[in-house]
Design goal:
alpha+beta; Gyrase A, domain 2; four-stranded antiparallel β-sheet; about 45% helix; about 25% strand; globular
Length: about 90
């Protein structure tokens, strides 16, 4: 796990415009066709988070799911955050 530099942050933001950078947190809201699809996505993210031993904050609002990622132990953004963000994007299709 590496703490992201300012250059890393800029590269991540440029390559992932759906993710919002806010201090030491990155967030993204996904929208699905149904509540069940949203919950299926959350289940996939939960499984990936368990494997990575890195757990996002998750907000579920019917068919919208917002993920917030930050490495609290480092009080910084790290590659754990960007790696899990990439996995979530894949799971969302």
């Amino acid at each position: 796990m590496e703490i992201l530099t300012e250059e890393d942050r800029a590269q991540f933001s440029a390559a992932n415009p759906d993710w919002q950078l806010d201090g030491e947190t990155i967030t993204r809201t996904y929208q699905f066709g149904t509540f069940a699809a949203a919950i299926g996505f959350v289940t996939g993210v939960a499984m990936a988070a368990e494997v990575a031993d890195h757990h996002p904050d998750i907000d579920i609002r019917w068919n919208k799911v917002t993920l917030a990622l930050s490495t609290h132990s480092e009080k910084a953004l790290t590659t754990k955050d960007t790696d899990l963000a990439a996995k979530a994007d894949i799971l969302a299709g």
